[in-house]
Amino acid sequence: MSTRLLLGTHVSVRGGLHMAFERGERIGCTTMQIFTKNSSRWEGKPIASADAKSYKTEQAKATIDPVFAHAGYLINLCAANPIIRQKSLQALEDELRRCEALGISGLVLHPGSHMGRGEEGAIHSIAESINRVHQNTVGFHTQTILETTAGQGTAIGYRFQHLKAIIDQVEHTERMAVCLDTCHLFAAGYPIHTRTGWEDTIREFDDTVGLERLAAVHVNDSKKEYGSRIDRHQHIGKGFIGKEGFRPLMNDPRFEKVPKILETEKSDDMHEDLENMSILRSLVP
Known about the structure:
The chain is of the alpha/beta class. It has a single domain, classed as Divalent-metal-dependent TIM barrel enzymes (TIM Barrel, Alpha-Beta Barrel). Helices cover 37% and strands 15% of the residues. The chain contains nine helices and twelve strands. It has helices spanning 19-26, 49-61, 82-102, 119-135, 160-169, 182-188, 195-208, 247-250, 271-282; strands at 7-10, 31-34, 67-70, 106-109, 112-113, 143-147, 155-156, 176-181, 214-219, 221-222, 233-234, 260-262. The protein has an eight-stranded parallel beta barrel with strand order 1-2-3-4-6-8-9-12. It has a two-stranded antiparallel sheet with strand order 5-7. α3 (82-102) packs across α4 (119-135) and α4 (119-135) packs across α5 (160-169). The radius of gyration is 18 Å and the shape is globular.
């Protein structure tokens, strides 16, 4: 394994986007994820040029790279309600523009929930929505990263085939990537908690989507049982995946250069992130 493990967490931008770097460096992040706006609102305050400059100045001084952003949770690219879908399109475009202005490498996005309309039609709607947003953001370097889901409710993305079907219908596939979430995979019924199960899962992912599309991994334990289809993150080693369940990931040479990012609950001092990262590092010889 590399001596520079790409390991980090989702970091708060309280006080300004540039503050994320100081927080991340303080706990030893070598990669991280942020929100560029309030994740539970449709619109966000525009990024002023001075704020973007401050962000890039701090980034240049830091040793954290790459940085990802997570899209807001209201976005549903296959919403049956035309008003919600239009708001989702506008929000996704805005988030991509924010990322591009900051030089963020990728925007992680939950594909959407079909709300009873069926998976096939929803998958087509998601791809169509991405195409419309990409048409308005030609030449952007920020990738659109689809995240695997637990399959809770009517969420799309709990099978690798969903992601492949979406990407296959996107016109500019070079702009597309995927983020695997360990909690979501486990809850969706992928047996990543055993060495054999991990190998089978990654083989299926490679055969279906392709490891070359993997941009990042969200490293989270699960509060719910295997195959529960319930999305509840837990601290490493305290959930149903268990500490040993992360050893295959942390020692897989195919994942050596893949950023690994925690998304677990934390206090202001982020001591939970320190503990979780310490556990993950202990799994690497």
